[in-house]
Amino acid sequence: MATKNNNVPEHPMERLLRMDRIPHIWCPTCGIGTAVSCFISAIDKFKHPHEKIAVVSGIGCTGRVAGYIKLDSFHTTHGRAIPFATGLKLANPDLKVVVFSGDGDLISIGGNHFIHAARRNTDITVVCVNNFIYAMTGGQCAPTTPLTANSSTTPYGNHERPFNLPLLASSCGAVYVARWTSLHIRRLTNSMHEALNKPGFSFVEVVAPCSTLYARRNRLGTGLDLLKFYHDSSEICHGADPTELDIAFQDKIKVGKFIDRERPTFIDAWNDNMKKKFGDKFDPYGEKKAKKAA
Amino acid sequence: MKTDPKGVLTGEHYLDGDHACAEGALAAGCRFFAGYPITPSTEVAERFCSRIPLVGGIFIQMEDELGSMAAVVGASWSGKKSMTVTSGPGFSLMMENIGLAAMMETPCVVVNVQRGGPSTGLPTMVGQADMMQARWGSHGDYEIIALSPASPQESFDYTIFAFNFAEKYRVPVMVMMDECVGHMTEKVVIPPAGKIDVAYRTMTTLSPDKYLPYVPEKNLVPDMMPVGEGYNIHSTGLTHDERGYPVMSPDAQDKIVNRLVDKINKNADDIIMIEEEDTEDADIIVMAYGITSRVTMPAIFEARKKGLKVGFIKLITVWPFPEKRIKQLAKTAKAFVMPEINLGQVVLELERIVAGKTKVYHVPHAGGWVHDPADIYKAIEEAANGNKK
Amino acid sequence: MQFWRKPLDADKIKVPHGEIHIVRDRCKGCGFCVEYCPKDVLVLSEEFNTKGYHPPEAVKADDCVHCQLCEMLCPEFAIFVTLKDEESVEA
């Protein structure tokens, strides 16, 4: 979109945005746009050719992220961003594949793919924007909705225990796990950058405000009020025990980098195993191309 | 285009339909397989995963069929020929991302070794009751291509055809095998790599600033460009325009859905393959596909011995249906007889096309075993006598 | 309200200055930039943009220290800051 004043330089994010699709569909004070800004800043710092980065989203508000980022990007079916990304990555190991999607998409309908991708250590980075609710469909209860919180399908308060996402990711084998709120822009950007550089299944949870549904239904004010709440209630606990990272309704949010460890990725493990079995007859998968490039 | 010789196991083999299918895929250049074990299709995955490390490709056993199909679509966008294999219950789960493949126009192959249904049905026994699901099992309007092999040799050959159609028309292609063919062991001749013709998707020659991913060429199929080439491709399961961007309007919907259907139907002459035998002057034409086409033969021989003029059509391509040819034959033949291992699926299309101009006799079978040729013979006899059942 | 002492080398440190650019019509008036600007440079303007929101305006533009917090927090890609070159005069 052209700005009115011709002297104004281009917004730094524009280089990696599909500007013919901006303005985006997200509501005023939604946190997803901020998470995208942090992601673009992390990509800027990430030393990997841009044409070899792909972004995959599922369905939902955060599912629209892929459609705004000017890289190879896919807006797939509900919950299937991770297996789609698995296919992309395994078929072309030169790629860095990022899954950018929401809590409902990744953890509810896509929960099975999430745990198995973490178990296999598929070399993908997963950014999960957690707004505690199904926003695109109108504010239904999600597997992340805190106990007692109101949603359109828990009108008397949520009675189901939510998932603790860092615990879920780390217990399934993720090699990098961090959580920040959309107010922690610098730390979030750093975590995204670290996650991108980490071979294997890296996971970054972004707690973000949904003003239209989560905040409104729970009388928490606007997204700005939620940012103020994050400011007052987040506690940075690097290396915290993931079992202690549950989020209770309007209670303390523990943020930080919790897991950073080494495990062979799916393709590394495949190559190691086949090399042992077949010796020189086996050409390590995905390595030839890397040699050519180098 | 000739195939990559690395995957071709040239020679004479004694293989079952499942193993032959895996060899067909490797010969066609398939280098990515994502799947989930399910009887009676698992042998395809087993063969593929044991062969692929030295051919140069990758295999992943996914957590379920939803993920398998999604991974296949993703892998295809990375430029690899990709496939998955399943049977009825898994086929149901794959429908979601078969729809995505249709909407994103992604070349891929889905093999369904059919068993008895519905639900868990008869896991180890034959069925042909997924034919309508293959065509329209995912929601919305779209067309796919479905082929049906009747022997291990055809399983090998048609899997290659399936990849060629998938690449040419950017569409999911179903290989509708059945348990009998999958588990039947026969001689399979794998030709030298130089004799195997394979297709690969047409890549755009336009530069990234000129290329739009969904501008159709003359054959209604858009040229493709995989990820990783700096084209900033965007693709979505939403109704989209030529840029691949979502557009929520009846006009955009009209344009895309019609093209998804037309690109198959208007190219039907290129896609449809049938085998005909003595149909020109036949009074009665028996039509069948898959294992049923073989079970039908004794009944046809018997009828011919009795002096009946019986022709035979074997559908290699089931979808799209050979509408043009059937319309011609409907003018001369007195009746069609169609056995299939379901209670009436492909026969509905036959009835629609002959539109009452000639009689259609269906020979149903609920599944679990193939027809008794005597039942098919009885139907031919009834057709000859002009008795409508 | 300041709890910290003045750094001993405060006189030597050159504080950068930023120039704020606001893409008014992209703004949805969330107020994040106004709330979190550490120098209170921004306020929501009285005027409406074409979408009917009140975009921010820089009332103390000279105080901007190019921290880019507004740029990163803005969910709409509607505000950004460039580093002001002290030496040369911009055209």
Order of the strands making up the biggest sheet of chain A: 2-1-3-4-8-7-10-9
Count of β-strands of chain C:
4
Q: How much helicity do the residues of chain A have?
A: 25-40%
Uncertain spans of chain A, ≥5 residues at pLDDT below 50? none
H-E string of chain C: EHEEHE
* C-alpha termini separation of chain C: 38 Å
CATH architecture of chain C: 2-Layer Sandwich
At the fourth CATH level, what is the homologous superfamily of the largest domain in chain A? Thiamin diphosphate (ThDP)-binding fold, Pyr/PP domains
- Name the overall outline of chain A: globular
CATH classification class of chain C: Alpha Beta
Q: Report strand % of chain A.
A: 15-25%
- Classify the oligomer: heterotrimer
Q: Approximately how much beta-strand content do the residues of chain C carry?
A: 15-25%
Rg of chain C computed from alpha carbons, rounded to a whole number of angstroms: 15 Å
- The domain tally of chain A reads 2
Helix content of chain C: 10-25%
Topology (SSEs and partners):
The complex is a heterotrimer of chains A (294), B (389) and C (91).
Chain A: H1 32-45, E1 53-57, E2 72-75, H2 81-91, E3 96-102, H3 103-109, H4 111-120, E4 124-130, E5 133-134, E6 140-141, H5 165-172, E7 176-181, H6 185-197, E8 202-207, H7 211-217, H8 223-233, E9 234-236, E10 253-260, H9 266-278, H10 287-293
Parallel strand pairs in A: 1-2, 1-3, 3-4, 4-8, 7-8, 9-10
Antiparallel strand pairs in A: 5-6, 7-10
Helix pairs in contact in A: 1-6, 3-4, 4-5
Chain B: E1 11-16, H1 17-28, E2 30-35, H2 42-55, E3 58-61, H3 65-77, E4 81-86, H4 88-104, E5 108-116, E6 122-126, H5 131-136, E7 145-147, H6 152-169, E8 172-178, H7 179-182, E9 185-190, E10 234-236, H8 250-265, H9 268-271, E11 274-277, E12 284-289, H10 291-305, E13 310-315, E14 317-319, H11 323-332, E15 335-339, H12 346-354, E16 359-363, H13 373-385
Parallel strand pairs in B: 2-3, 2-4, 4-5, 5-8, 7-8, 12-13, 12-15, 15-16
Antiparallel strand pairs in B: 1-9, 5-6, 7-14, 11-13
Chain C: E1 18-22, H1 32-36, E2 42-44, E3 56-58, H2 69-73, E4 79-83
